[in-house]
Known about the structure:
CATH architecture of the largest domain: 2-Layer Sandwich
Shape: elongated
Amino acid sequence: MSVETQKETLGFQTEVKQLLHLMIHSLYSNKEIFLRELISNASDAVDKLRFEALSKPELLEGGAELKIRVSFDKDAKTVTIEDNGIGMSRDDAVAHLGTIAKSGTADFMKNLSGDQKKDSHLIGQFGVGFYSAFIVADKVEVFSRRAGLDASEGVHWSSKGEGEFEIATVDKADRGTRIVLHLKSGENEFADGWRLRNIVKKYSDHIALPIELPKEQAAAEGEEVPAQEWEVVNRASALWTRPRTEIKDEEYQEFYKHIGHDYENPLSWSHNKVEGKLEYNSLLYVPARAPFDLYQREAPRGLKLYVQRVFVMDQAESFLPLYLRFIKGVVDSNDLSLNVSREILQKDPIIDSMKSALTKRVLDMLEKLAKNEPEQYKGFWKNFGQVMKEGPAEDFANKEKIAGLLRFASTQDDDGEQVVSLAEYLARAKEGQDKIYYLTGETYAQVKNSPHLEVFRKKGIEVLLLTDRIDEWLMSYLNEFDGKPFVDVARGDLDLGNLDSEEEKKEAEEVAKSNEGLVERIKASLGDAVSEVRVSHRLTDSPAILAIGEQDLGMQMRQILEASGQKVPDSKPIFEFNPAHPLIEKLDGEPSEERFGDLSHILFDQAALAAGDSLKDPAAYVRRLNKLLVELSV
């Protein structure tokens, strides 16, 4: 190695220091993963060179045979991983190896918990697998030169995984990157050909380029040791191009970990070859756990795109809708141009056809998971349910299919878990029930105990309980399922249709007519606070309730608009009362208009609180209530 120049010592970014501390002291019970991570990075570097060389063949520098080499030195206690990929300049090395230069860094660090399993998942997901080298090494050296730069512009980066790293400029004849791990005491098992071969076969057999190790050979007695020979130890073919019958589950799982930067097996996958008008291969995965940036809709997402086995881009987002942004995988097309760009992808009609087919493929995969592995699907829903609820608004063509995948809590269950499908709800609906009833609210306790459910409990009618912030917005796009309309039990004038007998309907009409005077009296008392006062068909136990007008926004949508700084349209609730309740009977018989007014407002405010709303004038409510209590105690 030639003399180093421009040598300097730099400090790691704070986040990297925390990451290294975790790596060195508490992370990875499975140490051999370091090799998988470094080979995965090398594979990405080769993919990038192959793509850039399409427009700049001179970057290959006469060496078009792309590969990764893994070697070891038992005496020096080192393991070396070398690739002839795109390589790094000095600036690249500082940026990539000294900082976590990615949006969401603060969220990433906030999510690190010290729990080995959880943190290892996040670290891989964040694409910082290079630092896993420090699991087995107490010193790491990187020698690299970016393709196209002069041999004198090589870079030597080294660190002991503490607070700083050294970087210097060196001569490097070949493009690409060589990483030398100086093994810690007690980690000598990795300076062994048999051990390294097994790790490569176990984790990296799917890598679609040759991974070479030194050929095991010994000299016959009295002969010189033969010159170093290399042998390919992995299959070195693109996994997604092979027939499904030839691929083991373990291979699919390891390939997912490679492309998804994940440490857990996927929940499910779908591997397909499409021939005909369009020709492409796809391999799609459903992760077992949500990424930490799932709810950042602008976060990078998408599939790895290959064109005729040549890697073109990471995170090609045009092949799946946004609500399926958690799906990982590969799509390899024979119909696209190799110089395709993100802008071209957004306009290409071929992409629209592929997107439609891939979306259906994912939804079919989820249907199969829900049907065959309900417990697994329950875990999927906990992680990705809120994102799936974005689907009906974004994907009109598949609205019914998405609706079938949704899960809800209901009055049928006591634990508040979202496990009820719409098909299950309809299968156990009451005879004559032609609607799907639901109620939205802030918390499960609030909606479960809502007075709006009283008539439904009395008649044994199941109601879906929706408490996610997105639910009211979701239901504005989800009008029906299997031909049955959705009905918000807190909205408008409740009509139970065939679930009410003719006698019940007639009795309700008579009760409403006999209380017309009380309706007018309460309306005069509450004035502009309400849009309407009427006898309730919803209540059996409570004295009063507030209903929402058919066209008015519910509480969830109002809060979403307020939080985003938008103007919330004015609306007034409907006040409904239960004339059979003792409090209403006393109210009806109250001769004092002042006292009648106070009682009416107290009932109105209590109904607002029961609905989970805040009072517009809490002091007035307290004053009226205290006045009433004083009168009762006299």
